[in-house]
Amino acid sequence: MVTIYAWLEIRATYLDEDLHPEIDEKKVFDDIDNLIKKLKYNELKVIEKNYSRFVQFSVMENHKTERTEEMISMYENITKIATGSYGLLYYLKMKYIVMNLGF
Q1: pLDDT at 103
Q2: What is the end-to-end Cα distance of the chain in Å, rounded?
Q3: Could you say which DSSP state residue 99 is in?
Q4: What percent of the chain has pLDDT over 70?
Q5: Does residue 76 carry a pLDDT above 70?
């Protein structure tokens, strides 16, 4: 069993945008939108609220799949594009032991 719970606050940079006009926030957010559109196995929507942008998602699979890999990769890629982003990714991989009780 594989379980992922995650949220990510998307920030173009950790620097003060007013002091760094070379940072193109629109391009950063467009790049992230394009990354999300390319997802093959998952649907994800950037939520905008109170001038903040974030994503949240969960994945529950019986075993590690391309879907779980895609979401972990997407999370990592967003943080590379938008270097000021922060969040939490909880990843749990459980292995079950099957017991034969002789019934």
Answers
A1: 53
A2: 25
A3: -
A4: 89
A5: yes
State yes or no: pLDDT of 99 exceeds 60.
no
- Residue 101 is encoded by which pair of tokens? 């009780």
Q: 26 with 34: CB under 8 angstroms?
A: no
Which of 32-40's residues contact partners 24+ apart within 8 Å by CB, and which partners?
32/78, 32/81, 32/82, 35/74, 35/77, 35/78, 35/81, 36/74, 39/70, 39/74, 40/66, 40/70
- Tell me the whole-structure pTM to 2 decimals: 0.77
CB atoms within 10 A of CB 68: 20
Q: What is the DSSP string of 7-37?
A: EEEE-S-SS-TTT-TT--HHHHHHHHHHHHH
- Rounded Cα distance, 57 and 71, in Å: 9
Cα torsion angle, 25, 14, 73, 44, sign:
negative
Cβ neighbors of 25 (< 8 A, separation 6 or more) are 12, 17
